[in-house]
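4.2 Preliminary Data

To establish feasibility before requesting continued support, the project team ran the inverse folding procedure on a target of 57 residues. The structure was first converted into the token representation described in Section 3, and no sequence information of any kind was made available to the design step. The complete token record follows.
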């Protein structure tokens, strides 16, 4: 169950990053560097989730 908990935690972080990206882009003077960093982190988490999920099934 520890693995499932870790997957759930990463899924929540992924969702929060998506929300942060959307919020940042909603500002008229959004920061391209910040959005880029958030997207890279989101992609890193997505890759880890896929790796963990493929190991589970």
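Position-by-position output of the design step:
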């Amino acid at each position: 169950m520890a693995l499932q908990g870790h997957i759930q935690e990463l899924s929540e972080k992924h969702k929060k990053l998506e929300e942060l990206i959307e919020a940042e882009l909603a500002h008229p003077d959004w920061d391209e560097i910040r959005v880029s960093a958030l997207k890279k982190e989101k992609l890193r988490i997505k890759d880890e989730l896929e790796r963990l999920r493929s190991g589970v099934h």
